[in-house]
Amino acid sequence: MTVNNILIVGVGGQGTILASRVLAAVIVQAGYEVKVSEIHGMAQRGGSVVTQVRWGERVFSPLVPLGAAGVVLAFEKLEALRWLPWLRPGGQMLVNDQRIDPMPVLTGAAVYPEDALARLSAAGAAVTLCDGYALALRAGNAKAVNMVLLGLLSRHLEFPLSAWESALRRTAPEKYLAVNLAAFALGRD
Amino acid sequence: MKQLMTGNEAIARGAWEAGVLVCTAYPGTPSTEITENAARYEQIYAEWSPNEKVALEVGLGASIAGGRALVAMKHVGVNVAADPLFTAAYTGVTGGLVLVSADDPGMHSSQNEQDNRHLARAAKIPVLEPADSQEAKDFTKYAFALSEEYDTPVMLRITTRVAHSQSLVELGEREERTLAPYVKNSHKYVMIPAYARPRHTAVEARLTALGHLAETTPLNRVEWGDRSIGVVTGGIAYQYLKEVRPEVSVLKLGLSYPLPRQKITEFARSVTRLYVAEELEDFWESQLRAWGLDVCGKEIFPRTGELQPEIVAAALAAPLGHSPASLEHSPTPPTPPAAALEAPARPPVLCPGCPHRALFYVLRKMRLVVAGDIGCYTLGCLEPLDSVDTTICMGASIGTAIGMEKTRGREFGRRLVAVIGDSTFIHSGVTGLIDAVYNNAPITLLILDNRTTGMTGHQDNPVTGRTLQGEAYREIDLTRLCRAVGVDRVTTVDPFDLKLLEQTIRAELAAEEPSVIITRRKCALIDREAVRPPLRVERDKCTQCLRCMRLGCPCLALREGETVIDAQCTGCGLCARVCAAGAIGEAGEQ
Fold it and tell me: Which of A82, A59, A68, A58 has its CA nearest to residue B165?
């Protein structure tokens, strides 16, 4: 009984939940059982957030076990490091090239790990870095970073491009569709 | 085709399919989306009530009038609604009445992690506990039938992981129900002692009958496997168990109170070792022990925090120990490898442009004692603002401040303020303010009016005057409300006017009577018109005094000895206002 596991991690407000909803729509369309666990409420106010996505023939727990995620899609570099223990040995760590200092770093109580990417590689993760902000700007809206990253994620999954495009059409507001599709395509390239 | 839904969406769908007419709630994580989704069905009247007590009373009224009603709240909301709940348990229902209690093990967004199965038992009402979204929908529908058949309110208890996890749901059609003619029934609904005594007898008989139902209901099912281990479980713990130990025998409890004694005893006899896997309290376990069953539970499962698949696996792998000395021992969650431990924590912060930041900056500067309350502004307790002394429950700030002042005297009171949000003030702050007026407590209350209910996701409330459907009737005018309860000194200031805010606080602290300062500025997340281009620090003017860093703004960072503003900045200008050197301005401005 194989269960596929993905973690989408980032900072509250970065659009991780919408990204996971598109992914989930693609998985449902492919006929799998799927479970998605989200975090709402206080953590969304700029805290560390995670959405866990699991699919297969049969899925019980909505939580991804430690060391079981085939892919971790990280919207921020420190968050990639934080959720590294959930990545399967040799799994894909897809990282948005963005640094958002958490408050303990801003107040000087902690230091931002400048070597986050090196530590990810040293731990055996296959790291792909993506400048989501630049690509989203190129697609026409700085806020489409989540769609760029979704495009990047799509390269590592079995689902056909048409399934992603149809999920984007169904999940996101009509007026952003052109930008979202462009951002997705840039991330996938 | 099946549809992917969160537990909360599925409960709203289940209510709709069950023909529910009325859905009421006060927003609270993790319950909020139940009512937001119910409001999308045109056949359902849905409302944000001012608090959970009113929500349940409206729901009970709907039930007495013959309609089915769903009332949703977070776990601590049930404390507020406990008064009507405990007597609604006596009156019973006409139309089905279902109370959703959304518990928050792990306290993702709550001040405690109470287990509301205890409250249901204290109120003597049955509890249903779904384990995924399909069950959330099915159990909701079943709860209405159960409520009417047994003449009782029913608690549907969910936890954060069920509320906010999505899984596939088979949709059904709505069962249209016609309202029976209204019949007055004062012996059932007027709870004077003479009428309430027979109702209590009826409640006890009802519990016995529900106990019989628990023996046969398909909601309590045995999944036979390896009979050397048998686990009594339910809710999300069932999913974790199936994930990590699919081979063991399981008794899954969907009707989790009252418990089926015979069924559990037979299950216990059929397995070599009996375990109870339940999140938080030993609710089932203690009952099993009272029946004399030899069971292993909280010796190996934690009583605090959320369960995780890893915790369930580790607990069942541990050698069996029944010694009472180990009762308080809780296995620690799995330790992540060292790399992650070095990742600095990322606590939640007030958003860029948040009006609360200005207020807490001033409170910190004035070194006041601050009795706080529940909402986004609770985050004012964190560094660097770090200016909140207490946070207990909805509305507690005012009573707490009164108690502090009455204990330590007027001199202490001149350095003490209470702080509460607009929605929280309406929820349960008004009565505290009445206490201050009535008992002559010259406290200073700050009402943080950001024109929304922020933390739960921007719901309207009586102060905004817009309903859940977005219709505008009448705004509750906070100034007039405070004056009406007898506060003569009511001022409104823009919290971004830091000087005026500080002056006003000083003046009101000195006043020998209760006073209210309304700090009014829209939540930055709903005031999109206020968003301006990011500001910039002019390097040659900046004296590195770091005063701006005391604001705790996530957009201000110190990089290689320089203060910089990043792209998330909404241009609110607060940092420019506190900058003594005038070094912060708009990007184009030199």
Answer: A59
